[in-house]
Design a protein that fits this description.
The longest helix has 16 residues. The protein has one domain. The radius of gyration is 13 Å and the shape is globular. It has three helices and no strands.
Amino acid sequence: MQIKTQLSARDGQRLEKIMRDYGFKSTYEFAKAALMVFIRANDPRDDELLTENLKEILTQEVDTKLYRQ
């Protein structure tokens, strides 16, 4: 699935600062991490542990490799 979006210039600058501050290497890496947090929070698998602190989740090491089923 591909998801595209448009941000205002101001929000884009804010996002770039956040990505730099937390060490994301690309917009793709950040978007993948943010979407996975949303999916896991709203439809967790039985083997997934959830935390209540969203900031913690977003700043953890994130595996963004693509997997084929």
